[in-house]
Amino acid sequence: MNARITLENTEELLQKHGQGHLLAFWGQLDAGQKQCLLSQIRSLDLPKIDQWVANYVKKAAPVEISHDFTAAESYRPHPIGAEQQSKYAKAVELGKELISAGKVGAFVVAGGQGTRLGFDGPKGNFPISPVKNRTFFQIFADSIAAVSQKYQTVCPWYIMTSRLNHGETVEILRSNGYYGLDEKSVFVFQQGTLPNFGPDGRILLADKANIARSPDGHGGSLKALHQSGALEDMKKRGVEYLSYFQVDNALINIFDPLFVGLHVLDNAEMSSKAVVKTGPQEKVGNFCLVDGKVTVIEYSDLPDELAEKRRSDGSLAFQLGSIAIHIISRSFVEKLNSKGFALPLHKAVKKIPHVDEQGNTVESDRIKLESFVFDALPLASNSMILQTLRNEEFAPTKNATGVDSVETTRQMMVARAADWLEWAGAAVPRKPDGSDCLLEIAPSFALEKEDLKEKLGDVPQIKPGDSIYLA
Fold first, then answer.
1. What is the pTM for the complete model shown?
2. pLDDT classification of 340: cutoffs 50, 70, 90
3. Which domains does the chain have, with CATH numbers?
4. Of 13, 273, 387, 440, which is least surrounded by CB within 10 A?
């Protein structure tokens, strides 16, 4: 009797919100499948989904962007003038103190698969380094271990996965012995999901008994930190700041004392690193000031006349590109979750497997919604931006070949290693388009170029065509 009433109530509710089709195959399900589907439907916030459908799914055009904003200000990679030199020095010392005290944790968002790289498995397990083919995960773990050793502390590692790769990621870490890290200092958790939609706003079914869902975007990390218990773990450890980065950037400087120190000195709640854009139409978000708040406006939403606008010195007016590197204060994430916040959603059209009205599995362009972590920046009371050099810290691996690819990442890893070695005084064989050798520097050998000065005696003579791994 109760089950019948529950079904009737569910049917009535779904019809009210235009989602009655979710029960289209009810008569073909067994008892367990029926209960599972009802549970999934009960978890839907249908009034909120009505708003999503109206505001994001059915809207063809992006939201109009007001022209009443300016380019954001930033710190340069290197200080200018005595006053800023003093501040940078103070920031570096403060950052080192905080890292040494175990107050900074690493946070990588690693929910993606390696599909676009032609790789079957979590992207974090893709072998990316030029000599030893170390994976992204191993590179990050090696950096965390080297920093922990250098500062005589334990730097915890928070890893956000998705429902697509959680189990596989956990097994990869376990089978590799957490790459030498203490298992207790590695906290792995899943991000949330959102239902997928047809262009008419109807929620898709993955099969006759399950709603089609996709990960909720890297913006979901701020809720997932709370819901997973990661925030509570941070609190117990005394971690106050998270170094946030994405899994496909092998050049990331996870623990940057300058970045951490400036964040704290400026009383920021969420800070960002930026690169100077290669051109007006580079496909990165633009750091702007809207109503006095740091805001990222996507490249597709920045009007062409503003993207092309130049300063008197010829540089782009909107030159700061977002590269998904942040310092986020734990207290800020706690504050957001105490208020029941919601970041804006963004619409993406993707090929999504689902069942059609006849119950056949098909794959076609449908709509997924996701949130972006940079949309939390305007919610911060203070926000700081630090420019970094692209060749030092930003090598996104999005494609198998071409722009932002496996090829370009390996080239950038070799180029950075060559630059560091030459800066320290080593001779590196060159050819017109770069170094005439393969080079890879393990974090245990050098976390930054300054570390190489005292290790020059350990660097062998590098000959043309050599493949050198320094560890």
1. 0.94
2. confident
3. 2-43 (no CATH), 70-398 (3.90.550.10), 399-471 (no CATH)
4. 13
